[in-house]
Amino acid sequence: MRWMVWAACALALVACDDGGDGGAGGGAGGAGGGGADMAPIPDQGGAGGGAGGMGGSPPPVDMMPPPPRDMAPPRDMAPPRDMGPPPPDMAPLPDFGMLEGDPCDPRLRAPACPPGNFCQHVPGRPPQFGVCQAGDGCRPGVAEDCPDPGRPYCHLKGGATFCSPEGVLEEGETCFDGDFDRGPRPCAEGLVCNFSVCQRPCEVGGDPAQCPDDGRCADISPRVGVPMGLCAPRGCDWFDGQGCMPGNKCNYSIRNDGVVVGSCFPEHGQNVLDSPCQIEGGGGDNCAQGYLCVGPPDQQRFCKLLCDTGGYEAPCPERYTCREALATQRGPVRGYGICFINQ
């Protein structure tokens, strides 16, 4: 009998110890409630003991923070201030009427038509569809060739010249933006558009000082059908090598001040289009005349064919077009470039 009383007291003491450790009781109860893993419940201290005793009861549902009170919609933004009427549309395209003439590709620029003609793009057609149109045959700088006061300016437009109103664009400013419908725009008096920027015309065989920086006068008469030249960089001609002694090549070169010039160097090779090449230590490269060794720094370079943007001096071969992809520390080189496959 005494043994039974002692055992009952021992059990009572154990029960008291379990109830006193709330944290431990909560843990056991969680395990007893068994089943799926539940998200942890915040420690409730002494209350955990009670939960621990409820091993067979479903655990309490996690309490989620109440959803935020609906926010009032943001106040409507004030309407943008009136910016005034939209800028006026560009001047309407000239009325070409029913274009007649031989078909041509305007992307070829000056060589697209016979000398004295301009390749006019047919509006609404793909870029390669054009029609050759005859020019006026005026000569830049010769006033009597354009006697109409409303059209006193002799405008170089591809392979032809036209009498037109004088423009306002100055030397070096862009006069053609790729819009073949409108074509090259007139420049200010004393300048012509080379299918890229406004440039000075010159008299072939005239005063050597007529071009800026003692530049040479490139004869484009065979391309336009009238006696005419365009001022070009000084030095030799990097297209055909004129100005250099036999055994030398005229290289496209860049002076220390960023001005592009033609410079004579000994010939180092005759590599042509897309052939691997290298810049020689003493200057020049191993590409043939008319080619330039180009490529990223510290990578393989290749020979590329030089060209002038308008196709007056050195047009690109069939299926190629001239892109202004050259630059100096002054910025992009205008009026000259490299031949790329026509896209």
Helical/strand content category: alpha+beta
Unreliable stretches (pLDDT < 50, length at least 5) are 1-96
- In N-to-C order, the SSE pattern is HHHEEEEEEEEEHEEEEEEEEEE
- Sheet with the most strands? 5 strands, antiparallel
Q: Report strand %.
A: 15-25%
Task: Give the gist of this structure.
This protein is an alpha+beta fold.
Could you walk me through the main structural features you see in this protein, from its secondary elements to its overall organization?
- With 343 residues, the protein is of the alpha+beta class.
- Helices cover 12% and strands 22% of the residues.
- The strands form seven sheets. Strands 13, 14, 15, 16 and 19 form a five-stranded antiparallel sheet that branches. Strands 1-3-2 form a three-stranded antiparallel sheet, with no helix packed on it.
- It starts with a helix and ends with a strand.
- 33% of the residues are buried.
- The N terminus is likely disordered.
Note the main attributes of this structure.
19 strands, about 350 residues, alpha+beta, 3-stranded antiparallel β-sheet, globular, 5-stranded antiparallel β-sheet
How are the elements arranged and paired?
Blueprint (H helix, E strand, L loop, with lengths): L1 H19 L1 H12 L13 H7 L49 E2 L12 E5 L8 E5 L18 E5 L2 E5 L27 E2 L4 E2 L1 E2 L14 E3 L1 H4 L4 E3 L16 E7 L5 E7 L9 E2 L13 E4 L6 E8 L11 E4 L3 E2 L2 E2 L3 E6 L2
Antiparallel strand pairs: 1-3, 2-3, 4-5, 6-7, 8-10, 9-10, 11-12, 13-15, 14-15, 15-19, 16-19, 17-18
